[in-house]
Structure formats: C-alpha cells, structure tokens
Amino acid sequence: MKFTLRQLSYFKSLCEHRNFGRAAQACHVSQPALSVQIKALEDLMGGILVERRARDVILTPLGRTVLAQSDQILQAAAELDRLAQDQGSNQRSLSLGVIPTVAPYLLPGLLAGLRAHDLHLRIQVREARTERLLEALQTGALDVAIMALPSGVSGVIEEELFADHFLLAGSSKRLQQLNAGQAAVGPTDLKAEQLMLLEDGHCLTDQALAVCGVARSASGINMGAGSLPTLSRLVAAGFGLTLMPELAVGAECSATKDLCVQRFIGEQPHRRIGLLRRASTAGDGWFQDLAAVARQTGLDILGKAQKDFGPAIGAPEIL
Predict the structure, then answer these.
(1) DSSP 3-state assignment of 224?
(2) In CATH, 5-83 is 3.40.50.300
(3) Residues 98 and 143: beta-carbon distance below 8 Å
(4) CA-to-CA distance for 267 and 189, rounded, in angstroms?
(5) Short-list 291, 297, 167, CA closest to 235
(6) pTM (two decimals)
(7) Average pLDDT over residues 82-104
(8) Tens digit of pLDDT for each residue in 41-80?
(9) What's the CATH superfamily of 166-270?
C-alpha cells in the first residue's frame, strides 16, 4: 500500500471544506503541506481527483470513487485505533449517535447514567440528522443510534424507549388568539400559514406536518429554523406556532422567557423514540442495558414535563 492514511484524511477534509486553505486549517497543517499530499495521492491514483478553481474545488469522477473508498478505510482505521486503545487501557468504548431534537435534552442525563453504571465505558457521541445516523450505523461508524421510529430501513434492531408527546408552543398573544371562540385546540385546527417548523431534513418537521394534516407543498409554511432553541425563540417572539416535543419543553421554556405552551385536546399526538443497532451486531446484554438507562432518563424528563405542564392524555402512566 503506497498511499497513507494521512493523505486520505487530507483528501477527505478537502472534499468537506471544498477549499485548500480551510481544509489545511481543519487538519492543522500549512496549505502547501496539504497540497503536496493531495498531489502525491493523485499521482498514486493515476489521475486528477479534484478540479481546482479560485476559491473552490470540484470532485472528478475518479475523486468521487476515491472519496467513497477513503471513507471506508478511514472508518476501519478509526475502529482499529479505538479497539487498540480499549485493549491498552482496559476500557470499553461505545459510539452513539443521536438526532438533534433529542440530543441536548436526553444526553446529559444519559451520559451521567451510563458512567454511573460503568466507569470504564468511554463514549463517543455524534449528533446528526436521521439519514446520516442511519448511514453511519450501517457502515459501522456508529454502534447505536437514538432516533424517531420507525427507521424504515432493514438490517437493524429497534428498541422503543418512550413516547414523546407534542405540545403547542408560541407567544402568549398567539395562543390567546388561537384559543378565542373555541373550547380547545387540536393539531388539525392549525393552518399552514400559522406554522413555523425546523428546516427541511429534520424528521420532526415531517412528523409535525403529518400530525397537523398539512401537506409539505402547502403555501405559507415557514421552515427556516435550524434547531429547536432557535425555533423556540422565534415562536416566543410571535413568529408563528410550532409543535414542541415534551422531551424539550422544560428546557426550552426555562431558556426562553416568553415561550408559552399548551396541551392539545384529546389524545396527544406523539413520536416514538427508540434505540437502534445493526442486526449483525451481537447484543450480549449491553444493548438492553443501554436501552434501560436511556428509557429511564427519558421517562424522568417526561415525568417532570407532565408534572409542570399537565398530563399527556392517553399516554402511559409515568411513575
């Protein structure tokens, strides 16, 4: 093997940043040093990997093929490095992925709980959207992932953790206007032009549209927020209404002074949050242990939310 992991790593960084200067900065090397390694890799591959432009680079067909293979090689190398570190330090490691609308709320308690159960467990966390987590899970870059169910892919084991109910969130004035003249509000009472949601690509946006019975193509929907904290601040300022997961409502109401929430009428709409692993990976008890800690962490958060903001009608009892 004539190429090196350093060359593949530099090439991957160049593909991600699409600029030699930014890629070099990310790799903590000088731009000339990175350029030399990329050129050496091109010589070994027998062709140009990127088209060089003034402030950008574009992958060639050969470059796309090399990038795909580089990803697999670098992931395998990282796994070997992690295994060697585990063996040398008598530790076990776990690579865990979590979707962004769950990670900030579940992870602090989950990580504390896992370390309390196993002081020798080293945890690597990756926060990403569902599509990327599933890809990383299937390629072996992740051991497990926490996301909304069902995943819709084959070859994985899904363990449901809890039901995460949706509340209606917005400014006090917006909610008062919505409630005027009706006893209670259901999800389908919301109009497309009233909704403010996360940007396209978040599974929570798809779930909210389905719950409200609103088509993605409907005019007037504002899908511009990149995170739940941003979305919370926007709707608190009066820019529309949104569906807030029960898992997040306590943290977001504490962080956003003018954010108001209310339960929907009748049985509460919800999403199912679960833990996934590859079916080809042996469980050996660790998967169920992890699920138990994650489930209890989530139920503790949901229990407090139901105490502070009222019970979720139709939800299983949370002790």
Answers:
(1) strand
(2) no
(3) no
(4) 15
(5) 167
(6) 0.72
(7) 78
(8) 999 999 999 999 888 899 999 999 999 899 888 877 776 7
(9) Periplasmic binding protein-like II (3.40.190.10)
